Amino acid sequence: MAESKSRRTARKQAPKRGEPPLVELGVSGLKRWGGTLREEYLSDLKGKKARKVYREMIETDPTIAALLFAIKQLIRSARWVVQPADGSDEAREVAHFLETCIEDLEHSWADFMSEVLSFLVYGFALFEINYKVRRGPDEESEWYRSAFSDGRIGWRSFAFRAQETISKWDFDSKGRVRGAFQVAPPDYKQRYLPLEKCLLFRTESVKGSPEGRSILRAAYVPYYYKKRLQTIEAIGVERDLAGLPVIYAPIDLWDSNEPRAQTLRDELLDLIAGLRRDEEEGVLMPRDPDHPEAYKLELLSAAGSRQFDVEEIIKRYDRAIAQTVLADFIMLGEGERGSWALMREKRSIFEHALLGWLDVIRDTLNQQAVGRLMEYNGIPREFWPKLQYHLPRVPDVEDVVKILDALAKGGAELFPDEDLERWLRDLIGAPPPKTEE
Prior knowledge:
- By secondary structure, the chain is an alpha+beta fold.
- Helices cover 41% and strands 15% of the residues.
- Among the domains are: 29-216 and 326-393, no CATH class; 399-431, no CATH class.
- The chain has helices spanning 5-12, 48-60, 62-76, 89-103, 109-116, 118-122, 220-242, 259-273, 310-323, 340-376, 397-409, 418-428; strands at 32-33, 36-37, 79-83, 124-133, 153-161, 166-171, 177-183, 190-194, 198-202, 244-248, 296-300, 386-390.
């Protein structure tokens, strides 16, 4: 049934609800005190102590180091390009300007990305954006020296401000971050870094937290127990090889009324604790000719097997550490575990997680770096370009064969095609075809 004219008129002229309330009533609820966050409940992972712990984890644990190496290398392999706002000449010219700003940085883009990826370990990474006026390569001042002489505002550098140097944060009354305070060597003076002059990369921003959340946070508990088990295992191996030292001594050494006896007993206890198999091994023992058996040292060897397999427990913690970043596929193949299909599935999930972190980097650059640069140069918003990444991915040969087979059965004419043949040969590592002389 056709809608009547009166109904259409009434719908078009429906009364407005009124002006929206332009006021913010609530707050994020982020726990903080004096510019420092109080969200973490483990004392070892609060504030600067957390940064020391995470640094220890990445520098001493082989499993964590391997995971981070894989993550960083895959993310650093991404190719970054500038996308114009549209196909107009004005948009392409602005995109070219952004490309020149990247080329004109004091540091390489690869070095910058290497420092950006520290936000995965610590939860955040802070950079100070330094600008310059592009007046040509002959200018003495670094604030004006550039490979270009168009007089525009460009980037001089994205200067890394290490996580351990950030002492506290500056918040407004609603809990939004306004800046950071830095205390760093060599002078250890307090410096204020306004957020409008910074790039802040975060793994997540729950409650508006400026510190995000380390991807190693969930790995801390298995790392903690694994570290202690490794210490116990090393001590156990040493004792099994060297033997458990036992000293038989006269009962008089336990006389609490004899200070000299107590001193000798303490020295013998230190002797037992410090007994090691090394280049300085050796024991000096007192001997009483009248009582040759008064002091006796023996090394007892451990008998029987252990109740627990320490090595298997440590491997279990290694798998738990890898699972926290969806990278447990690197553990497949150890022993009798895993299959090729399972590894491919887990690797696919891992690669999707990498894309999520690349999205964080891309969005932060576009919002906090590119947008401000465009504003300083007075460029209309409709011409603003964007940075985008392309992550190269080597296709699976089995998948390629299935696709080609399906296309061929569907009647697609795939060959002769020199480009396709060359690509397939490169994919499987086959030599190029022989050319006719």
